[in-house]
């Protein structure tokens, strides 16, 4: 009886929405990544490109007009530039920092040494080639390095480090330079050690799915490689076309698959890293289980190149599963979204691969600012929307499982309305709503952006409180990875306003800290938040970090000014 | 046509084995754990109790005859005792170690201080109560501590540590004292800090499944608690009835759910730990994503209490899934087992929860030595057996998925024969074969045991090589967690023989090292393997471990003689 009723309701639902026909979409990711020549692949479009307020032309203009700047004023200048841009993007929170005087400056003898070990072609002094390496992807930070080195082997990295350490030459390790917190560009004249030439796959075990590769491998290349072998990378980022696995590991990149496969602390099996003094740390295990002493690799995962340069990585890749389904649903309130998550974890547990949410403000911003995007649900006022993705090994079973799940929750009233994608285009259009939010926000005015981890139950309280605090005409938008408790809090106003910023900060950090949240869920600390780390870490924890840094890098040459508070790292 | 053929084959298979009727076994673990009063629960029986060569009476005899021993000779004495036991169990590999002379000895002033902060009842000097705390579970190691402290709060642990550090009193942190490498008992007269009174659950988030609790909580109690809330602990050990979560974290315990949920480095979200100088490190985050500085908690996971005492733990618990199926299969060769694993990962990927293997030698040992155990397959000579368990959210779909999978592989010849459990008793009897191996080995003669991680493709080569090397009448048995590349290599001979040992060691360690394996997959280093760490870790890595140890515990008071080579730790 109950089952029949559920089917009736589903029918109503299906006929009122664009379609509930749940044809399973097998392998859509693969199909998309194969069309990557078009320049707008599914994965690429998801997060990274949409964060950019710049076109390629704007980027070139910026580079031409700002050239190479040589001290910390660059930060203010870059900020001023961004403030004055018509896009009204506001970056803030970067305190001035002084060059550490104990660092040497590059001289001709140094250049000669590097050429002798790396060869002429891998010692870059040409300004045109240095410029992009001195500039971060968001054009927020710009360094003034006069030297970029391109090692081709761990031994070369070791030689570089040993030499720089003895000469007190500061170093910034650089992968794809796609970081968002100023961690991968020089602050002053640090030597750039770019890993792009160490891009070989060393081995792949087709039974266990264990990949061993050099740090400079581009994530998308690894994705293609493992895909051909029937496996997937356990992380997937919008920046995959440029970012390198060494950088991913060094920043503990999160991304779209974290809810399913967990963090890199669980998926990285081994690392080879070169310490500040040139010591090669071989921790390149390929074992799922190894309880022999302290698990040192974790020190290098997420330490943003400040303890060593990651040169090789060993990763556990899960098998590729063929069946994917995506549903776009409406809920009445945040509590319903939470309940839906509980149910999805329980009933879809083993196939659930994404659980994203957005509020009605986020939906409106997207519908009002992005061309060609439409609400797949029939017109109605809904307060919250949820995107659920499942990935499993069997098309028909997985589809039925999702349908049964949705039938039940429609009947219970937890879901007010919903639609399941019936083809790849619909999958893409559902994801476009969620992933288009940052781009739509950029077009709507000045944006104040926060990437926070918060306890799930409290997460949306911050959005409500902020809304009450700021009033009209400021708009407060909440969306993010509900499955990971990761809130993207975005606040927009018609124009950038210092008074609004003063209303937001430090309130947002204090609120996050009070609820034991994280002020950086997935982007890291870098230069941007080095002085804000205490909002998420205790003084004792920061002190231990500083002690470890000083022990492993007594001259402080590795990625200085980043990760740890400037007042403490300056003591180096 | 092909599908029909598969069904015909299945019919043949089903009728020739005890039954292929694949009735799904929902929730069998819960059922078993609820009957734990019987003293032989499913989980209890799986691994831990079967490792014990002792009855309770033997344990008492040992304690009475050996009493409290005061120096390193205890190791030799214990070994002699074990050698002479009728069970012919051989423990080896423990080099003599000298008491570090810089450590103070307990005096009456110390006792007075501890009573003042902990109260009379929590300062234990009574020999009867000290004796079990001085003795490890395997009766291999016995210390001579005269003092056990029972703190009830983090603050009390901090007071203890600060005092002991200033007085140079050595400490051994102790949880359930269920370790297998001598890590949780004193070597000499170290003060035992037993965590059993810190056993409160602090919070549980029913939406996210995040559990926060004190370190002294017994794993089985946490399992019951989370089970009631609809979640499961991400680790499950045979020792669950005694072991404590703080000890689990400190040893990075592996266990039966690792293949599904991964290691504790992925599941532990936060830790509170007290350092050697009494500093309380609050790293008790409850967030899946937090990229703010070095992720220090990983230093405490698996460092066996040598860097700090874990006082609180925050864990991500997955939702409980209701449907479990178990199949017992026969394969012709090790390559087929590997191929079966590849297929299982791909086709059962999201529901696969165990993939165990045993060779025909292991099967024979079980059938010949354990009463009531029978081969569920029809009599035939098979070289390898595989146990596959699936756990999912939907009974009928999961069952069908497993059946379809088995049909196909029967047809392809990868599986020679097989049976799927049709009720809880059959589940139990299949697991009994796999989990009964250690017990059966103990009954078959002298046993030389090795717990190794090896690259999957090479894993069984070691068994073959060892078999060729040792010849008759020595028996070489290979089994273990194939899904985790964890080999349990066991060698039996009618009597213990030093010549056989010399044939095995150091060959087995050198072989493991040559193939970049781990000499301790899941048990840790403890006292037992402190001098063998170089077989699995590079000198540079060990040196960094020693530097970290010296930085965090300059007086070396925390769990001395363990984890790191004695020659290096003695320098403390």
From TrEMBL, chains A, B:
Molecular function (Gene Ontology), one example: FAD binding
Keyword Cell inner membrane attached: no
Pfam families: FAD-oxidase_C, FAD_binding_4
Catalytic reactions of this protein: (R)-2-hydroxyglutarate + A = 2-oxoglutarate + AH2
Oxidoreductase found in the keyword field: yes
Cofactors, names only: FAD
Enzyme category, top tier: oxidoreductase
Entries under PANTHER family matching the protein: D-2-HYDROXYGLUTARATE DEHYDROGENASE, MITOCHONDRIAL
Name assigned to this protein: D-2-hydroxyglutarate dehydrogenase
Primary gene name: LOC110798890
């Amino acid at each position: 009886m109950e089952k029949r009723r559920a089917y009736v309701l589903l029918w109503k639902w299906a006929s009122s929405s664009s379609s509930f026909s749940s044809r399973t979409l097998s392998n859509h990711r693969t199909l998309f990544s194969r069309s990557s020549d078009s320049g707008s692949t599914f994965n690429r479009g998801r997060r990274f490109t949409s964060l950019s307020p710049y076109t390629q032309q704007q980027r070139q203009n910026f580079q031409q007009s700002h050239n190479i700047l040589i001290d910390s004023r660059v930060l203010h200048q870059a900020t001023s530039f961004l403030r004055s841009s018509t896009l009204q993007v506001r970056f803030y929170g970067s305190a001035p920092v002084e060059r550490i005087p104990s660092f040497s400056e590059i001289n001709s003898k140094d250049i000669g040494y590097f050429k002798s070990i790396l060869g002429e072609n891998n010692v870059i002094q040409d300004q045109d080639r240095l410029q992009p390496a001195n500039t971060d992807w968001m054009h927020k930070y710009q360094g003034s390095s006069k030297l970029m080195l391109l090692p081709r082997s761990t031994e070369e990295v070791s030689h570089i480090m040993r030499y720089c350490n003895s000469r007190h030459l500061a170093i910034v390790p650089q992968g794809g330079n796609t970081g968002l917190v100023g961690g991968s560009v020089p602050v002053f004249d640090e030597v750039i050690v770019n890993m792009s030439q160490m891009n070989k796959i060393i081995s792949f075990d087709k039974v266990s799915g264990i990949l061993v590769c050099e740090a400079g491998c581009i994530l998308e290349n690894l994705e293609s490689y493992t895909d051909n072998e029937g496996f997937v990378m356990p992380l997937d980022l919008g920046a995959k076309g440029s970012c390198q696995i060494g950088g991913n590991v060094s920043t503990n990149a999160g991304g779209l698959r974290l809810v399913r496969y967990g963090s890199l602390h669980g998926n990285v099996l081994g690392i080879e890293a070169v310490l500040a003094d040139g010591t090669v740390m071989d921790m390149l295990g390929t074992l799922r289980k190894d309880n022999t002493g302290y698990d040192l690799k974790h020190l290098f995962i997420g330490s943003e190149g400040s303890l060593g340069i990651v040169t090789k990585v060993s990763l556990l890749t899960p098998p590729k599963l063929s069946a994917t389904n995506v549903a776009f649903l409406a809920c009445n309130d945040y509590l319903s979204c939470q309940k839906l998550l509980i149910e999805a974890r329980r009933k879809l547990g083993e196939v659930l691969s994404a659980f994203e949410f957005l509020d009605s403000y986020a939906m409106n911003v997207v519908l009002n600012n992005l061309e060609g995007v439409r609400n797949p649900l029939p017109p109605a006022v809904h307060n919250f929307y949820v995107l659920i993705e499942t990935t499993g090994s069997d098309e028909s079973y997985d589809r039925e499982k999702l349908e049964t799940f949705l039938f039940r929750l429609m009947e219970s009233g937890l879901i007010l309305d919903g639609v399941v994608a019936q083809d790849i285009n619909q999958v893409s259009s559902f994801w476009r709503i969620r992933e288009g939010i940052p781009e739509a926000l950029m077009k709507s005015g000045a944006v104040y952006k926060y990437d926070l981890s918060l306890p799930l139950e409290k997460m949306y309280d911050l959005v409500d409180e902020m809304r009450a605090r700021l009033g009209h005409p400021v708009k407060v938008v909440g969306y993010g990875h509900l499955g990971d408790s990761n809130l993207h809090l975005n606040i927009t106003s018609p124009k950038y306003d210092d008074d609004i910023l003063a209303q937001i900060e430090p309130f947002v950090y204090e609120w996050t800290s009070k609820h034991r949240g994280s002020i950086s869920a997935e982007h890291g600390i870098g230069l941007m938040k080095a002085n804000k780390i205490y909002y998420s870490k205790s003084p004792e924890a920061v002190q231990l970090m500083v002690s470890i840094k000083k022990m492993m890098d007594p001259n402080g040459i590795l990625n200085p000014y980043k990760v740890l508070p400037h007042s403490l790292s300056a003591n180096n």
